[in-house]
Design a protein that fits this description.
Blueprint (H helix, E strand, L loop, with lengths): L8 H11 L5 H28 L9 H11 L3 E3 L2 E3 L2 H31 L8 E5 L2 E7 L7 E7 L5 H11 L2 E3 L10 H14 L3 E3 L1 H6 L7 E3 L3 H11 L3
Parallel strand pairs: 5-6, 6-7, 7-8
Antiparallel strand pairs: 1-2, 3-4, 4-5
Length: 237
């Protein structure tokens, strides 16, 4: 059986408790942090060893490999933030940057569809108002009778997806690429909420076909803009 790179949360807790059975909750928590740092260090060390053992690097001397390994695993400090090595700093920075960019792209894709449908920012819809990503008005913002809040998600649903819909939206649109996230319980939560708000959950056509438990409040996200235009004209979808 292939050894796991990092133990599970349960295994780390068990290991921490085993080292001192009489430890209280805070001591256990503190010990788990030490163990996480240990396993993180081992993980990077194993990655570097695997990299240096590649056939393409066979020509490098042992002395050079030791120097490379030392530099790759050297802790660094960027401003006030400390990292165990430069790889960790680089991976975290690019991950955080791309996460923001990815979320912005999802919203811009949705807004592009609204504009293509003839809706105008500040007249038919606004952004980032009342905790919603978009809010569409009927008949228009200055003299609206009804409003419809839109929650935009990228490719992951996760728990916060259903929770965000419950608090911040009447409709949810996303680019979900994992049908398995739409479990029976998630479907029930989304379906119940959307029935109450008169909204829908809009997902990519390919994902929609593979969702096992989909109900009446699920639609292809290609129909989203047409529905929002209908709301602006009639006050309902």
């Amino acid at each position: 059986m292939k050894k796991k790179l990092i133990p599970s949360s349960f295994e780390i807790i068990e290991e921490a408790a085993k080292s001192n059975p009489k430890a209280d909750i805070n001591e256990i928590h503190s010990k788990t942090f030490e163990l996480i740092k240990k396993y993180r260090k081992e993980y990077y060390k194993n990655k570097v060893n695997a990299f240096l053992s590649r056939k393409s690097l066979a020509g490098l001397s042992k002395k050079i490999k030791i120097k490379i390994k030392r530099e790759l695993l050297k802790p660094i400090k960027v401003k006030d933030k400390e990292y165990s090595n430069f790889m960790e700093e680089a991976s975290r920075r690019i991950s955080q940057t791309l996460q923001v960019i990815s979320g912005n792209i999802a919203e811009l894709c949705v807004e592009r569809e609204l504009k293509k449908a003839g809706l105008k920012l500040g007249v038919h819809y606004v952004k980032r108002a009342e905790r919603a990503d978009f809010t569409v008005y009927y008949p228009q913002k200055e003299n609206f009778k009804k409003k419809h809040r839109i929650e935009v998600k990228n490719v992951k649903l996760r728990e916060r997806g259903t929770r965000g819909l419950a608090f911040d939206g009447d409709t949810m649109i996303g680019f979900f690429n994992q049908p398995s996230e739409f479990t029976a319980s998630n479907i029930e939560i989304i379906d119940k909420h959307c029935k109450k708000t008169g909204g829908y959950c809009y997902v990519p056509p390919k994902t929609l076909k593979l969702i096992k438990y989909k109900n009446t409040r699920f639609k292809s996200n290609t129909k989203f803009a047409k529905d929002m235009k209908k709301f602006v004209k009639k006050g309902f979808i």
